[in-house]
Design a protein that fits this description.
The chain has twelve helices and six strands. It is α+β, with helices and mostly antiparallel strands. Strand 3 and strand 4 form a beta hairpin. Keywords: Cell outer membrane, Lipoprotein, Membrane, Signal, Transmembrane, Transmembrane helix.
Length: 297
Amino acid sequence: MVSNPKIGTFTSKSIGDYISLKDTIFLKNTQQLERHPLRKSANYFIEIKPPLYQKPFVKSIFASFRYNPKKLKSYKIGGMKTFKQLLFIVIVAIIIGSGCAGSKKKKNEYNKPAIFWYQGILREILFANLETADNYYSSLQSEHINSPLVPEAMLALGQAHMKKKEYVLASFYFDEYIKRFGTEKNVDYLTFLKLQSHYYAFKNHSKDQEFISNAIGSLGDFIEKYPNSRYRPYVEYMQIKFILGQNELNRAIANVYKKRHKPEGVKRYLERVDETLEKETKPKPSHMPWYVFIFDW
């Protein structure tokens, strides 16, 4: 098969398999390349390029076998590598171009009907793109302030932000809904959602003293204003949890005063502990990881 490997000229038994043109041969497909005698030769590297006169992804390939004296124990398929790099560049260019076109399209979106913005809000919520959904709400609010879809969008965004643990934004939407669209029939439910967002936002008892006090006050106001609400049991449960957290916080502060030898501070904060609730509920101390405990009080 090989007359002189060092020179790089090849011959063939069948001209249908490949045509010898010194160091260049034409193969019909990749299977023939795999069967070629120089495929595993250590003295050659292989460069594959698609024929310029044929369309891409055809069976035929244009293979060049060249002598490689510097790298006698290696070969490479350079044409396919170049093709993959070119394909990658084209894909990246398409993505960047479509992104720029999409952003340009979004900038030109204005004076749309209310249903357009509302559907966009629901679509972005479905795909968890809440930032875009918030932007759509701003457009809906500014272009159709009296639309009946505005309160529906506010409620949907509030619940979506709470599900994503963005409780500050959730509380904002619920609070705005209460101020603008609250009625006797729905105000207790909306207030409950707002208090629930505060409850889930409570993370660290030792760092949120003011937050606990405000939350307990708001929960107490709800029970006083809506004694017959169906959401009252849930609010009472949250109130108990906050009071227990406040008890633990007061004990922690009393412990700090104890270490500083200030008995008056110890007495003042221990008096704030609800001993009756502690006896009835018998709460377990909050779990604190060891790496937090080292730097804690």
